[in-house]
Amino acid sequence: FFPFNQGQLALIHMTHRYAVAALGLTMGLLVWYVYKARTSQGIRRLTILAFVAYLMQAGVGALYVLTSATVWTGVLHVALAATTWALLVSLSVLETLNSREIISEQDRQAWNPQ
Fold first, then answer.
1. Is the dihedral of CA 9, 21, 88, 62 positive or negative?
2. Taking the CA of residue 57 as centre, how many other CA atoms within 13 Å lie in the half-sphere pointing to its CB?
3. pTM for this entry
4. Rounded Cα distance, 85 and 111, in Å
């Protein structure tokens, strides 16, 4: 039964592809959520930039598999993966800081009723 009869390396490669598909679905949901629930243009742009970097990385990864697997394709694939990761970490940090500001404002209003 494909891909499981191809050996350990094929199993690793297929697991990688399934993880990439799951990340793509998750990032698609993230883009949808941000456009539905967030008004900050900076957060929206950062989310789109991360999604575009992910799509480029997935495309380069597919080219790496389907072509002669040159060193530069591999380097570009890893560089785009690092870029995607950095953008998602930045997005997480900004959202964490934004949520702290909201909670702090709510606490302040609770102590100082108008």
1. positive
2. 21
3. 0.76
4. 39
